[in-house]
Amino acid sequence: MIDKLVVVAIGGNSLIPDPRNPHIDEQWEAVRETCRHIADMIADGWQVIITHGNGPQVGYIMQRSEIAMREAGIHDVPLDLVVADTQGSIGYMLQQALDNSLRRVGMNHTVATIITQMRVDPEDPAFDQPDKPIGGFMSRAQADKAEAEGWQVFEDAGRGWRRVVASPKPLVVNEINAIQALVLAGYIVIVCGGGGVPVVRNEVGSLRGVAAVIDKDRASSLLAQTLRADLLLISTGVERVCLDFNSPRERKLDEITLEEARRYLEAGHFARGSMYPKIDAAIDFVHNGGPRAIITSPTNITRALHNETGTRIVPGGSG
């Protein structure tokens, strides 16, 4: 039996402190800072499973691929392989940083990354309505150029323009048996990176990748439900969720019930490209039996676990 099982979902954007200067050294420091707080959770008795986003990182790889194809005639990289690439690279960074952080507090755990496939429905309507942002923010001129090259773009929460791809609903974590076996054996696993590599089964039952990106918060919620976790912790770029964000009426939320969360979501308080999927994932987890979800920034994880900050979504109301 496992006590205090938590799925920690790390945002891909939170690992890039300055999107205008996404230097790898800065990303390493953000990963190390995040892992220091995760190590504190483990020292406090939590059994941790880590997931992570990859939106900006996918965009950088695809931009490099486009340049290589244009300048040197090198083949482009399919989106499913790009997601797998980020699972390996970000997983490696998290593995190393968390191992080092644990050793500093006198703990010795094996940390392992599993390249994770996520099964989706090939008839999911999302394939006809791309809405998942990937890559960095662009100016209007850069967005026009991306559109001319065949991309779909949208304006993301007043922060700039981004490319969008299909984001089908995750149905099954393909490697769930291996994940569960490792967790039960006491390993710390990093899984479902970037939401998992989206795959479908063909008419004879074989798996194949599809050109899409699964929202990592939805995938993390599904994983937490499947493993019956005690907590879904979504680590993002803000300390607490806000109503009327960045307006004179801004109000920070400490604890909201499931019913309140649904009401705020339906009222349009949360932007589709930023906080909406996080609240939606928290609602899904709590609605399906999860005791609570927390949304906060990496540096505030420890304080949020002691109810000193962060936004908690808990059962309650007619939900």
Radius of gyration: 19 Å
DSSP strand content: 15-25%
Number of helices: 9
Widest sheet, order of strands: 3-9-2-1-12-16-17-15
Total beta strand runs: 17
The residue fraction in helices comes out at 25-40%
* Low-pLDDT segments, ≥5 res: none
Identify the overall geometry: globular
Describe this structure in words.
The protein has 319 residues and is α/β, with parallel strands linked by helices. Helix content is 37%, strand content 21%. It contains 9 helices and 17 strands. Strands 3-9-2-1-12-16-17-15 form an 8-stranded mixed β-sheet, sandwiched between helices. Helix 7 packs antiparallel against helix 8. The longest helix has 26 residues. The model has no long low-confidence stretch (mean pLDDT 90).
Helices and strands in order, then pairings?
Elements: E1 5-10, H1 24-43, E2 47-52, H2 55-72, H3 79-104, E3 111-113, E4 117-119, E5 132-138, H4 140-148, E6 152-155, E7 161-165, E8 172-173, H5 176-184, E9 188-190, E10 197-201, E11 207-209, H6 216-226, E12 231-235, E13 242-243, E14 251-252, E15 255-257, H7 258-266, H8 276-287, E16 293-296, H9 301-305, E17 311-314
Parallel strand pairs: 1-2, 1-12, 2-9, 3-9, 4-10, 12-16, 15-17
Antiparallel strand pairs: 4-8, 5-7, 6-7, 10-11, 13-14, 16-17
Descriptive key words:
319 residues, alpha/beta, 8-stranded mixed sheet, 4-stranded mixed sheet
Structure, briefly:
The chain is of the alpha/beta class.
